[in-house]
Amino acid sequence: MDLILFGMQGAGKGTIGKGLASRYNLQIFETGGALRALSQEDTELARKVKSIIEAGHLVPNEVVMEIVEDFLSKLPAGTNILFDGIPRKVEQAESLNSLLKKNSRTYRAVLLDISEETALKRLTTRRLCKVCKTIYPITYTADKCTCGGELITRSDDNPEAIQTRLKAYREETVPAIALYKDGLITIDGHASIEEVEKLAFETLDKVL
């Protein structure tokens, strides 16, 4: 079974997603990562994506679905997927659901649920490793990443930019999540990452 992972910015999707992928042997599909992988290829799809990006345009939904289908075609038989950061909008959710059904894949949506207040607090206090891009919460007090890299604050982790991202989540992603309400698995994400991960495992062990 594939998992579609939702969560407001600051919910810990990246970290929890990696934990879920490891525990349940899932391949992570993340649009940015898929685009980077394609950039190393010389295929018709790769050339199409490169031309869109080089022209300064956003990759349209229909091309994102081509990227997903390309990703599916390269997976070993029986491999399940964790979708992280996709879908972001209703149109994309409808397209993804149609594509998964066409490929006879079963799926469930998982929501890491936090309040906007919690998101704002986490995003304005977290730090990012300049080298390996690991994100650290305020509870991590060391000056350096475990890899030795410098810890910095992301330029877009300021209250004004965060409010813009949260507004987009409310207006675009929340309606997309509603499409999965019948089978939605909701996990309270307000505790520490370790506690949320434990709760996620306890919940999903019963499903997967």
- Which structural category do the helix and sheet elements fall into? alpha/beta
What would CATH call the class? Answer: Alpha Beta
Mean pLDDT: 94
Helix coverage percent: 40-55%
Distance between the termini: 7 Å
The strand order across the widest sheet is 2-3-1-4-8
Instruction: Report on the biggest sheet.
Output: 5 strands, parallel
Point out poorly predicted stretches: none
Q: Per the principal axes of the C-alpha atoms, what is the gross shape?
A: globular
If helices are DSSP runs of H or I spanning 4 or more residues, what is the number of helices? 8
Question: Nearest-angstrom radius of gyration?
Answer: 17 Å
Can you characterise this structure?
- The chain is α/β, with parallel strands linked by helices and 208 residues long.
- The protein has one domain: Rossmann fold (3-Layer(aba) Sandwich), CATH 3.40.50.
- 48% of the residues lie in helices and 16% in strands.
- The chain is built from eight helices and eight strands, in the order βαβαααβαβαβββαβα.
- It has a five-stranded parallel beta sheet with strand order 2-3-1-4-8. A three-stranded antiparallel beta sheet has the order 6-5-7, with no helix packed on it.
- Strand 5 and strand 6 form a beta hairpin.
- Helix 4 packs parallel to helix 5.
- It is globular, with a radius of gyration of 17 Å.
